[in-house]
Design a protein that fits this description.
CATH architecture of the largest domain: Up-down Bundle
Distance between the termini: 25 Å
Radius of gyration: 18 Å
Strand order of the largest sheet: 3-2-1-4-5
Low-confidence stretches: none
CATH superfamily of the largest domain: dinb family like domain
Mean pLDDT: 96
Number of helices: 7
Number of domains: 2
Order of helices and strands: HHHHHEEEEHEH
CATH topology of the largest domain: Four Helix Bundle (Hemerythrin (Met), subunit A)
CATH class of the largest domain: Mainly Alpha
Structural class: alpha+beta
Shape: globular
Helix content: 40-55%
């Protein structure tokens, strides 16, 4: 996807998140984030929006500590504060040139492409959290964008040494969306992070299939495994559920 497309998704997802949070109310529990209220979710997401905008704007070369989640604002000031931070991030990304240099933490064609992609998916996942607090049906997600989010998760986050997804014996998990031209083969072992290939070649011990949005949210633990079609060893899918949380 193009950087401009990620920014457009970021804008849409942030607006949907704010709308869902307004409908849910600040004190509503968030089923997909146990222990959090909608207010906690909004403050968390906006904190990361501000952190990313600062990195793109200031261009640090090394790691930047995440901003602490603020205790304020609350009440009537909360959503205007969120919209201000979200809007500033969108404007910062649109104003940045493709030659922008700054710190990143996953491989990407450019720092700008990284931050646009990461914040678009960060916001999309938390939009789903806000909608789960509001209740009613989730907003539809573009299948190509959802497939891209699966790719970021599998080939980015879970390629890092800190991924906790391990198996005692070598195992293969396949992810195959039904509405996007993509597939991933994830090879799991006991002593290394998962190795993901962008293909559906060879046998797999377990396959997750279904609409890209459902697979995206299953893999991010926002929907139950039953939202996907599982074939093969379902214990391997359950292992993913138990060990794949991103920290």
């Amino acid at each position: 996807m193009r950087t401009i497309d990620y920014i457009a998704h970021l804008q849409r997802e942030g607006e949907l998140l704010a709308d869902a949070a307004a409908a849910a109310g600040e004190d509503a529990p968030v089923p997909t984030c146990p222990g959090w209220t909608t207010g906690d979710l909004v403050r968390h997401t906006s904190t990361f929006h501000r952190w990313a905008a600062r990195i793109v704007d200031e261009g640090p070369a090394g790691p930047v500590p995440e901003d602490p989640m603020p205790a304020e604002p609350t009440g009537p000031a909360l959503l205007p504060w969120f919209r201000e931070g979200h809007g500033n991030l969108v404007r910062t990304l649109r104003a940045a040139g493709e030659g922008t240099e700054c710190w990143t933490f996953l491989p990407a064609p450019s720092p700008l492409a990284f931050w646009a992609r990461r914040q678009a998916h960060e916001t999309a996942v938390h939009r789903v959290d806000a909608e789960s607090a509001r209740g009613r049906e989730l907003s539809a997600m573009d299948p190509a964008f959802a497939a891209d989010g699966i790719d970021e998760l599998l080939t980015g986050f879970h390629a890092r040494a800190r991924s906790r997804v391990r198996t005692g014996q070598p195992r293969v998990l396949r992810v195959r969306p039904s509405d996007a031209e993509a597939a991933w083969t994830v090879r799991l072992t006991a002593d290394a992070p998962p190795r993901t290939e962008r293909s559906a070649d060879g046998p797999a011990d377990c396959e997750l299939s279904g609409p890209a949005q459902d697979l995206y949210l299953v893999l991010w633990n926002r929907l139950p495994l039953t939202a996907a079609t599982l074939t093969g060893d379902t214990a391997l899918a359950a292992l993913w559920r138990e060990t794949s949380a991103i920290t």
